Amino acid sequence: MWGQSVLAPLADLFDSPEGQHSLVVLDVDHLTRINEELGRERGDELLADVEVELATFLTEATSARWTGDQYLVLFPHTESRRAASLMRAFMAHLNRPSHAVRYSLSGGGSTSPTDGTSNRELVAACATALATAKARGRAQVLWTGSAND
């Protein structure tokens, strides 16, 4: 699976005494509708654009496509408030009108060891926060815990 390359180093970080590590699961909002209205080719271009934007803008993170329209973003040695701040800046960056296809992302973030001490626990915490972000209107990244403040 694509995102395993992001999750593999996370497992090593759990054994590291170097503090917190943050993980975000991002989801492209309404990709099915984009594919239906503009065609799959444009949808694929959008997915490629997301990968470029993540790699270019979030230089402190490692990111990879995880599933069809989801991405994992790993912030090693980064506490939740810092990672949340970086994600807010990234989301603001995406809202600029220069993209050929306008799109938004929703996300859920979690931080070890507070939200879990394994890949599975962190991804589950991210999924819960992602579901809340979508329920609250999409186009935002919510965190488990106090990083949303």
Give the SSE layout.
Layout: H1 4-14, E1 21-28, H2 31-38, H3 40-57, E2 62-67, E3 70-75, H4 80-94, E4 105-112, H5 119-135, E5 141-143
Parallel strand pairs: 4-5
Antiparallel strand pairs: 1-3, 1-4, 2-3
Question: How would you sum up this structure in a few lines?
Answer:
By secondary structure, the protein is of the alpha+beta class. 46% of the residues lie in helices and 21% in strands.
Q: What is the helix tally?
A: 5
Provide the CATH superfamily. Answer: Reverse transcriptase/Diguanylate cyclase domain
Reading side by side through the largest sheet, how are the strands ordered? Answer: 2-3-1-4-5
Stretches with pLDDT under 50, minimum 5 residues: none
> Mean of the pLDDT scores?
83
Q: Give, in order, the helices and strands.
A: HEHHEEHEHE
Beta fraction: 15-25%
Within the CATH hierarchy, at the fold level, what is the topology?
A: Alpha-Beta Plaits
CATH architecture: 2-Layer Sandwich
Number of strands: 5
Q: Roughly what percent helix?
A: 40-55%
| Top-tier CATH class | Alpha Beta
The total number of structural domains is 1
**Looking at the structure, what is the overall shape?**
globular
Largest sheet features: 5 strands, mixed
